[in-house]
């Protein structure tokens, strides 16, 4: 290594940590130092939609071809999908060369670029997804080149972390989470899969029931129908930045909630696995128990509406997510409060007082 090369590389990486538009310069400097044909940062996962790449030395179409097709056919990645953070390796370390050179990936993707070998450094592992430094060369990498990768890898890890923290800190919705701690508004940050990344006090009290955040996705917080509605809104917000959607969460057997889903668009050329996709504000919808002038509780009113829709005890219990015995208890109270003795009489009494099915 020539004198002063490492400090110059670290200066480039530091500049990129503070300004993401400087990453091409940093990657270009790394490519020159390693004598590589191309160098990039890549997010790798078994799901093509989760893959991304920022590279120098190749065009955008080549990056898209890799993430969209060849990544799933890259035997070196498939053999090292569980590699931990800090691992530096070449394709020859994980796949015998005589097997590697027979693959579609090698012959149809690498060779047309003049590439015969690859090396990588695992910089981040999260949710079965890796963030790696990828290096492509025309000849086998020497120990001095791998040693240089090993020395700059910790600095690349810190640079990515600084990028993320700066982007989040300068984005208004994220910066206001502390504000929501001072209000009664329940606020959640969720990723593209609906996993809860952060929540303020009111949200924890209303929705999480003491579960740790790393175990909470929308499927743990809401029932299946509500979860799918909320996930669909999150996906639409991700597809159209600055979008805001209102979603009614019906919560069988409990008071309904309104979720206001607002996209979080952060100016980075990639999205890490734990990146917040949306800010979700939750508020209770007005109770409808007083729609009936019989003094029903909210649970009794919910059952009354099921009776008006023509559902029997078993169907109502299933729709409301409560036990049949509980439903029978509520039904007995409905009879008592309406001075009726059968479901038919109850429905007539409810229709006489309400005039419609709510």
UniProtKB/TrEMBL annotation:
It comes from the Bacteria. InterPro entries: Sig_transdc_resp-reg_C-effctor (IPR016032), Tscrpt_reg_LuxR_C (IPR000792), WH-like_DNA-bd_sf (IPR036388). Residues 293-350 form the HTH luxR-type domain. GO terms for molecular function: DNA binding. Coiled coil: none annotated. One of its GO terms (biological process) is regulation of DNA-templated transcription. This is HTH luxR-type domain-containing protein. It comes from Rhodoblastus acidophilus.
């Amino acid at each position: 290594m020539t004198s002063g090369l490492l400090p110059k590389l670290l200066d480039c990486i530091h500049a990129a940590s503070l300004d993401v538009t400087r990453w091409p310069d940093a990657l270009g400097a790394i490519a020159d130092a390693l004598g590589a044909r191309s160098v990039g940062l890549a997010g790798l996962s078994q799901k093509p939609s989760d893959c991304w790449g920022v590279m120098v030395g190749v065009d955008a179409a080549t990056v898209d071809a890799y993430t969209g097709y060849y990544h799933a056919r890259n035997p070196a990645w498939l053999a090292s999908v569980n590699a931990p953070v800090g691992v530096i390796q070449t394709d020859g370390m994980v796949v015998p060369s005589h097997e590697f050179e027979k693959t579609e990936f090698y012959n149809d993707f690498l060779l047309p670029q003049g590439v015969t070998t690859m090396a990588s450094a695992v910089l981040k592992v999260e949710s079965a997804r890796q963030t790696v430094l990828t290096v492509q060369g025309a000849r086998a990498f020497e120990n001095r080149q791998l040693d240089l990768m090993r020395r700059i890898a910790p600095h690349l890890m810190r640079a990515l972390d600084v990028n993320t923290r700066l982007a989040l800190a300068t984005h208004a919705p994220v910066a206001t989470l502390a504000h929501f701690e001072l209000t009664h508004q329940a606020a959640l940050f969720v990723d593209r899969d609906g996993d809860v990344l952060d929540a303020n006090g009111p949200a924890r009290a209303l929705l999480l029931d003491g579960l740790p955040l790393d175990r909470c996705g929308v499927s743990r917080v809401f029932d299946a129908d509500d979860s799918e509605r909320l996930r669909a809104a999150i996906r639409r917000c991700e597809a159209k930045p600055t979008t805001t959607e209102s979603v009614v969460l019906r919560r069988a057997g409990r008071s309904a909630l309104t979720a206001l889903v607002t996209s979080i668009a952060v100016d980075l050329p990639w999205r890490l696995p734990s990146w917040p996709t949306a800010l979700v504000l939750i508020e209770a919808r007005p109770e409808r128990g007083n729609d009936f002038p019989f003094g029903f509780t909210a649970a009794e009113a919910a059952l009354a509406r099921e009776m008006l829709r023509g559902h029997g005890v078993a169907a109502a219990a299933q729709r409301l997510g409560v036990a049949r015995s509980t439903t029978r208890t509520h039904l007995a109270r409905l009879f008592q409060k309406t001075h009726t003795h059968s479901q038919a009489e109850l429905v007539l009494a409810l229709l006489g007082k309400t005039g419609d099915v709510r």
